[in-house]
Write a structure and sequence with these properties.
This protein is mainly beta and about 120 residues long. It contains one helix and eleven strands. A hairpin with a 5-residue loop joins β5 and β6.
């Protein structure tokens, strides 16, 4: 059964915008709201890297490469986490993955592909 499901991927032009969504359909509200959520990406042939994260207290972190262009936020009532990506760059073509952590438990989504092209 699906633990985390990403959506919103696709093709976007250089300089364009895209919003990714991640839903945790099996979580109850209290579990999701107590979780730290994050987005990672994995470009072709490279390691998976942290893009942005948001804690249960809504403290946010961004990788230097995306600061000022990306925004992570969450809607606990809908058990969703979002990643707004602006001013896309070609090197950001990658699979984007949602990650959830609560205490010692972690979970990954299956990912959504984003292609940035001319």
């Amino acid at each position: 059964q699906v633990q985390l499901a990403e959506s919103g991927g696709g093709s976007v032009q250089v300089g364009g915008s895209l919003r990714l969504s991640c839903v945790a359909p099996r979580n109850i509200f209290s579990v999701f709201s107590a979780s730290d959520m994050a987005w990672y990406r994995q470009p072709p042939g490279k390691e998976r890297e942290l893009v942005a994260s948001i804690t249960s207290d809504r403290a946010v972190y961004y990788a230097d490469s995306v600061k000022g262009r990306f925004s992570i936020y969450r809607d606990n009532s809908r058990k969703k986490t979002f990643l707004q990506m602006n001013d896309r760059k070609p090197e950001e073509t990658a699979g984007y993955y949602c990650h959830q952590r609560r205490e010692s438990e972690t979970c990954w989504g299956e990912g959504t592909q984003v292609t940035v092209g001319q």
